[in-house]
Amino acid sequence: MTSTPAIELRNISKIFNGTTAVSDVNLSISDGEFIAFIGPSGCGKTTTLRMIAGLEQPTAGEIASYGKRVDQLKPWERDTPLVWQNFALFPFMSVAENVAFGLKMMRLPEAEIKKRIAEWMERVGILQLRDRAISQLSGGQKQRVALARALVTQPRILLLDEPLGALDAHLRIKMQSELKTLQQETGITFIYVTHNQSEALAMANLVAVMNEGRIQQLGSPNQVYRAPSNRFVAQFVGMNNLIDGEVAAIDGEHCMIRAGSNSFSVPAANKPSPGDKVTFIISADLVAIESAEAPQRENQIAATFRGEEFIGSVVTMFFETEYGAEFKVQQQQRAVQKLGLKFGDRVNLSWTANDSFMLL
Amino acid sequence: MRRLNAFFATITVPPILWQVIFFLVPLIFLVVMTFWSVQNYRLKPDFTFTNWQKVLAAGYFYDIYLRTFLYAAAATVITSIVAFPVSLFLGLNAGPRFRIVAIFLLICPFFTSYLVRTYSWQVIISDNGIINTMLGAVGIGQVAMLNTFVGTMIGYATFFLPLVILLQFASIAAIDRDLIQAAHNLRCGRLRTIFAVVVPSAKVGLTVGAAFAFILAFGDFVAPSLLGGGRSPTLSILIIDTVKSASDWPRASVVAMAMIVTMMGVIFAALTFAYRKPGETH
Ligand SMILES: Nc1ncnc2c1ncn2[C@@H]1O[C@H](COP(=O)(O)OP(=O)(O)OP(=O)(O)O)[C@@H](O)[C@H]1O
Ligand SMILES: [Mg+2]
Questions:
Q1: How many angstroms separate the first and last alpha carbons of chain A?
Q2: Ligand 1 centroid to A71 CA: how many Å?
Q3: How far apart are the C-alpha atoms of A205 and B111, rounded to whole Å?
Q4: Which residues fall within 8 angstroms of residue A159, CB to CB, at 6 or more apart?
Q5: What does the alpha-carbon distance between residue A78 and residue A64 come to, in Å, rounded to a whole number?
Q6: What global pTM score does this model have?
Q7: Would you say B35 and B22 are in contact if contact means Cβ atoms under 8 Å apart?
């Protein structure tokens, strides 16, 4: 590990004839970091990655790598191999020739090339495919070839643009853990773009949430998940319910927020004063379902069951409340079965004050 | 299903019929005719091997065959190399509007007869033609071009250079740009990328372009006779002479058969090369 950042973006912007793709991004990525960029489609993730690789020229700003300016360098003068979403393997070459490509360009001796490509093909499990044509590979195998082709040059930084996007769900989970292990073993700085937030949260040490060309929040997976820094992050990451209200009173660590016919106790953040308009969030997995009576306490609201969605053993239930038609509650399927709710049933939803979180 | 079969029948039968009537039948007739004989300048159905024996025993036949082959090979290499930078620019760098104009200009020459265009070259490259007049004006002596190898090559280029460019361009324009960027990303500089990625990616178009150049040059009569002077005859000139001077259609057919077999061999080799899969060489 070195203390100079592996990649530093200073006031980076990219404007494509009129459309702003990336807007004034400042970011420092330490050596050995696994950073994931997440954000909705078109928010500028790929553009940011391509600027680091030199495949796109920034409209403004500077890029440095290990203390040296790189933004003036041609792509082939940089050491930032990219794993492409569509793999971009050379169809006119065999698997082994694809993997050897970068080393050939570095003009390494033939024997050294042979040794290194065998090592990496072995490591990612494609050694037996070495003489195959690219068209004869499955998606997962192509993925491995793409990885080997990028890693065989022993870069200090690896760029990955939705590398698992083309794979089915099972393979994606398997590759996630393989990639994570690979990153930990090699200590290579991974800069990873995805729009799959669970992938980012599961793999990365550092998550950059982007929207409209700007970084909305930079933090650990837990921070962006449990402590989103703004409304966008709260809605994009995790499964959060947002409630807008007005500060009614402040009581030490907590403040009382009035919203509609209910009042809520929320840990105070950013020194609010009575009368302030604020938004607080409560994560869907921290909400309890109780039998219906008129709400009696703080942090309790009346709701009508409207729909549900299954992801594995977790059920997301949708309730209609006075705060909107889609108040989300997430529970284990077993617990939901015990409740035996039918669409249209009325219930109360509640949560512990300390689980809710005031947006700044 | 039956309706689908009927549909395929209606779209596949006409071209097959066309091929049979206009290619296969004449070809069979050509083969049959190589065994006929000629008496008093009249064709006479027969079954004799003399035509084959006479042609294949003649030393001049092999000279002419070799010359034709080498001329066609030279024309293939020269036009492919001249066309490539143009195709590269049109396929990778040119903007869409420039491209359309360029394609239009490349098709334009086919509006006028190849013969007419060849005659106009005579005016340009003859000993007191436009080029030599200009060279003379700057004090450079006459350069013989008309009735030489150079003249023949200029004729071939007039014939099919635009076609070779169009074929090369079409396959270069279809290259996945990500592949080129992926090469750059793996430390492959601009020039190297052309040989490492562009050429192999466009292999089919480059090969088909070269195959067309070879076949058109190999069978051409106009360029070697009008610009090459006809003093170093090619197989087409030989055929014409054989028919004109002796009305010996059967022997001309033997020469034609040699040409057809050669061209089929070249096409077969070209297509095998173009569509070879990676990894099959090891
Ligand atoms: N070459 C280009 N020319 C013009 N506009 C572009 C170009 N590349 C990207 N853009 C625009 O820049 C914006 C950001 O694009 P980018 O590809 O970085 O998004 P992304 O975050 O990677 O999205 P996705 O998740 O869909 O891949 C988009 O609005 C896109 O239309
Ligand atoms: Mg993208």
A1: 35
A2: 19
A3: 66
A4: A49, A52, A53, A80, A81, A82, A83, A191
A5: 11
A6: 0.87
A7: no
CB atoms within 10 A of CB A250: 15
**What span, in angstroms and rounded, lies between the C-alpha atoms of B51 and B64?**
17
Report the run of H or E that residue B145 belongs to, with start and end. Answer: none
As a whole number of angstroms, the distance between CA B152 and CA B226 comes to: 8
**Minimal CA–CA distance to A193: which of A14, A35, A29?**
A35
A44 exposure class (CB count in 10 Å sphere: 0-12, 13-18, 19+): buried
Sheet holding A214-219, edge to edge: A82-83, A157-161, A189-193, A34-38, A206-211, A214-219
Q: In this predicted structure, what is the pLDDT of residue B1? A: 56
C-alpha–C-alpha distance, residues A172 and A162, integer Å: 11
What is the 3-class SS of B2-64, one letter each residue?
Answer: HHHHHHHHHHHHHHHHHHHHHHHHHHHHHHHHCCCEEECCEEECCCCCHHHHHHHHCHHHHHH
A332-345 tens-digit pLDDT: 999 888 888 999 99
Interface of A with B in 134-153 (CB under 8 A): 134-135, 149-150, 153
CB-based contact A90:B181 (threshold 8 Å): no
Query: At the fourth CATH level, which superfamily is domain B60-275?
Result: MetI-like (1.10.3720.10)
Model pLDDT for residues B68-104, shown as the tens digit of each residue: 999 999 999 999 999 999 999 999 999 999 999 999 9
> Which ligand has an atom closest to residue A37 CA?
1
- β-strand partners of A29: A7
Structure letter (DSSP) for residue A205: S
Q: Return the axis-axis angle of helices B203-219 and B235-246, rounded to nearest 10°.
A: 30
Give the mutation target among A15, A16, A17 for probing the ligand 1 site: most ligand atoms within 8 A of CB: A16
d(CA A288, CA B93): 61
